[in-house]
Sequence to fold (236 residues):
Amino acid sequence: MIEVQRRPGTRARLLVVDDAADVRDVLVRLLEREGFSAAEATTGREVAAAVANGSADLILLDVMLDGEDGLEILATIRRTSDVPVILLTAKVGETDRVLGLRLGADDYVTKPFSGPELTARVASVLRRYAHAVTPHATMRFGELTIDTTAREVRVGGELVEMTMKEFDLLVFLASSPHQVFNRGQLLEGVWDSSSDWQDDATVTEHIRRVRNKLDGEGRRSRWVRTVRGIGYRFVP
Fold:
């Protein structure tokens, strides 16, 4: 049995979002057999309610819902929440995967999938979110200030809003100035994952978002630099 507990003494709460009752039933049975607590939803409105009341630790979201676009639901979730989202999709094209990652998906599972693959991916994503950055210091690099206790980033005194993983990625890089990390190392260090389970385009997209938030859309990054053919490094 896979045991991933987000809070001591409780089971991770999953929300299965699919418009097919038979699919929901199979997934709920599978997940509960593996030790998770699973609830069901069929509409974006039900998902929004679960996000608002904090009743889901992870959302399994079908991309193709009846009359609704799963990616639009994902975009709505990301306006207010960092709750992990795994997309369930029959689409396998790179464009679709990149779009989902840009909107904030944590992983993709392509239909048809096996039960062991799905539960392993759920467990992996939950573990990554459980390994949050441990607060230890305030780091200052000229106009850039990173407060790991308050989990705040400021540029020139102005607060920069970041998601949890964007913040963790920035702290990871800034904690080792000038050191070059490839995507695999960043997946392991920030997401507690690997390219075997996680698309390394996740790293590329998060780097892009961190840069845009620190320096502005389309401007050259002052702090997070690309080392061509290798990876990324933080320049203080």
